[in-house]
């Protein structure tokens, strides 16, 4: 007997093959292209299981439009697209909480796939979003699927969005449920919105071992698993670890993961004899017409909204190279800092360059410019910190760089195992220099505030996005107990409102920091 297991992950609301930087693009990704592959593979196999590994609600302009512009109670376009494909099960990603629990619950209620979630619990310890696992019968074969989510949601997410929820270790949940599943089913599948915390070749840590990613530990320590479907890190992976096949199918629907199992009956129960795992690229596929038609009206409304002009620029806020922006700053970054500082009333501001696809604000500035440059639905937090905190944060952001062949480059740790350019912050309200050739922890030279040295005991108010404000991105000097005020309006809306009040903006090319060898 043969069973085909198909997976998608981290589609992030990208239904059509476009990144929205330019109208009506044809990029090598999107759920409507993945749908073509999924349906083809389903037709080829008598027995199949189709899974989505989460992070489907947030990330694209379409996802933002439904939640923040239409103020829809549920993501009707995203649900319609997923429902046009015969998914069996899905689990919950960390970004599913960005628009609040009610929005997520309505998304689940409108989904035809069954959600499984074992390690997100209510106050009473019961699973909060459906059963911890479910079983599908394929002929006389029983396949159990366990749903898991990275426990780091609790550290990153706005606490109002995860109120009354408890996130336990995915490893702990797997240890609890896999033995139970093993008794009830022939095949045990773990559907984990998390990735690998160790190198798959030698087992050495490739990231901080802090519970964000636990796939390696789960596969190593929990006996009885037949298949591991992962996500979260946006990596393109297919292979075997400890004899267990695994996949991680990138993001935005750029790949479909496929694991084929050859099974035979042994002592009255099916057992896996062989497995074949691969990633199937979706980029050359023709979009599935049924999936595409399911969200046509919403996509047209999104394109109209993106084209709306908001303000004119005196000068230029575009740039050619994101890396050069991170080295030298830009008028675009200065503008974002200005909006943040005026919104929150503070001494210092920090922001990242969140997209490597966009190139700053064109003239006139449109919603397309805003939403493709500031790609996350971040809100802002105001913190009171010390000068010592600020210097520690500057040293952390300085770790982004290293030197190779006498040139400043991005430290490979920020691109593997996951691309994390968003963890490099640029600061406004202070002047500073990063000397990359200095040892880590001693790279920031002479930070000054209003011309005076930043001292350890100095008290400062800083504006950060809420992810960073609670320590996200390994910034332990920032924490929730230092937050003195939150703003509940997403940054994209704040930028739009600022431009509506200031229809003429001047490009500011002031440089307050430099990065040197």
Layout of SSEs?
Layout: E1 2-8, H1 31-44, E2 48-52, H2 61-69, H3 76-83, E3 89-90, H4 101-109, E4 114-115, E5 120-121, E6 133-138, E7 141-149, H5 153-156, E8 166-167, H6 170-184, E9 187-193, H7 215-221, E10 227-229, E11 236-241, E12 244-249, E13 255-266, E14 269-281, H8 289-293, H9 296-306, E15 309-314, E16 317-318, H10 322-328, H11 331-344, E17 348-352, E18 360-361, E19 365-366, H12 367-373, E20 380-386, H13 387-398, E21 401-404, E22 407-410, E23 425-428, E24 431-435, E25 444-449, E26 452-453, E27 459-465, H14 466-469, E28 483-487, H15 491-501, E29 504-506, E30 513-516
Parallel strand pairs: 1-2, 2-3, 3-4, 7-9, 9-10, 10-12, 15-29, 17-27, 24-30
Antiparallel strand pairs: 1-13, 5-8, 6-7, 11-12, 13-14, 15-19, 16-18, 17-23, 20-27, 20-28, 21-22, 24-25, 25-26
Helix pairs in contact: 2-9, 6-7, 11-15
Protein name: Bifunctional metallophosphatase/5'-nucleotidase
InterPro entries: 5'-Nucleotdase_C (IPR008334), 5'-Nucleotdase_C_sf (IPR036907), 5'-Nucleotdase_CS (IPR006146), 5_nucleotidase/apyrase (IPR006179), Calcineurin-like_PHP (IPR004843), Metallo-depent_PP-like (IPR029052)
Organism: Fructilactobacillus carniphilus
């Amino acid at each position: 007997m043969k069973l085909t297991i198909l997976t998608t992950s981290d589609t992030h609301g990208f239904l059509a093959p476009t990144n929205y930087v330019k109208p009506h693009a044809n990029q090598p990704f999107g759920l409507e292209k993945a749908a073509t592959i999924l349906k083809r593979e389903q037709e080829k196999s008598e027995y199949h299981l189709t899974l989505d590994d989460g992070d489907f609600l947030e990330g694209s302009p379409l996802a933002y439009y439904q939640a923040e512009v239409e103020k829809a109670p549920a993501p009707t376009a995203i649900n319609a697209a997923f429902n046009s494909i015969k998914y069996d099960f899905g689990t919950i990603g960390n970004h599913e909480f960005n628009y609040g629990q009610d929005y997520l619950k309505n998304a689940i209620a409108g989904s035809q796939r069954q959600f499984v979630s074992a390690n997100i619990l209510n106050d009473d310890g019961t699973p909060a979003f459906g059963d911890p696992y479910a079983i599908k019968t394929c002929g006389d074969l029983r396949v159990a699927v366990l749903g898991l989510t990275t426990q780091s949601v609790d550290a990153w997410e706005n606490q109002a969005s995860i109120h009354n929820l408890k996130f336990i270790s995915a490893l702990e949940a797997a240890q609890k449920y896999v033995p139970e599943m093993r008794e009830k089913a022939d095949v045990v599948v773990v559907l984990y919105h998390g990735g690998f915390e160790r190198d798959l070749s030698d087992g050495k840590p490739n990231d901080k071992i802090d519970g964000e990613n636990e796939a390696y530990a789960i596969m190593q320590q929990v006996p009885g698993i037949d298949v591991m479907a992962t996500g979260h890190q946006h990596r393109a992976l297919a292979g075997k670890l400890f004899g267990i096949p695994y996949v991680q199918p990138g993001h935005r629907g750029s790949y479909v993961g496929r694991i084929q199992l050859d099974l035979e009956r042994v002592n009255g129960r099916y057992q896996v004899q062989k497995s074949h795992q691969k990633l199937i690229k979706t980029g050359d596929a023709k979009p599935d017409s049924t999936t595409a038609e399911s969200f046509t009206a919403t996509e047209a409304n999104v394109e109209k909204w993106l084209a709306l002009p908001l303000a004119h620029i005196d000068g230029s806020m575009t740039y050619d190279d994101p890396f050069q922006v991170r080295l030298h700053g830009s008028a675009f970054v200065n503008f974002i800092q200005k909006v943040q500082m005026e919104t929150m009333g503070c001494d210092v501001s920090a922001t990242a360059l969140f997209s490597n696809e966009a190139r700053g604000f064109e003239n006139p500035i449109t919603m397309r410019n805003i939403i493709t440059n500031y790609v996350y639905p971040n809100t802002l937090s105001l913190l009171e910190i010390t000068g010592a905190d600020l210097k520690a944060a500057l040293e952390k952001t300085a770790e982004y760089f290293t030197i190779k062949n006498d040139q400043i480059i991005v430290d490979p740790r920020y691109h593997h195992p996951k691309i994390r350019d968003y963890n490099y912050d640029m600061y406004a309200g202070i002047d500073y220099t990063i000397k990359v050739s200095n040892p880590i922890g001693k790279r920031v030279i002479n930070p000054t505030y209003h011309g005076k040295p930043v001292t350890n005991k100095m008290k400062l108010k800083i504006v950060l996005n809420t992810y960073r404000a609670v320590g996200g991105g390994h910034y332990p000097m920032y924490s929730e107990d230092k937050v003195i005020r939150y703003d509940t309006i997403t940054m994209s809306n704040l930028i739009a409102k600022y431009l509506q009040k200031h229809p003429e903006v001047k490009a500011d090319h002031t440089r307050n920091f430099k990065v040197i060898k």
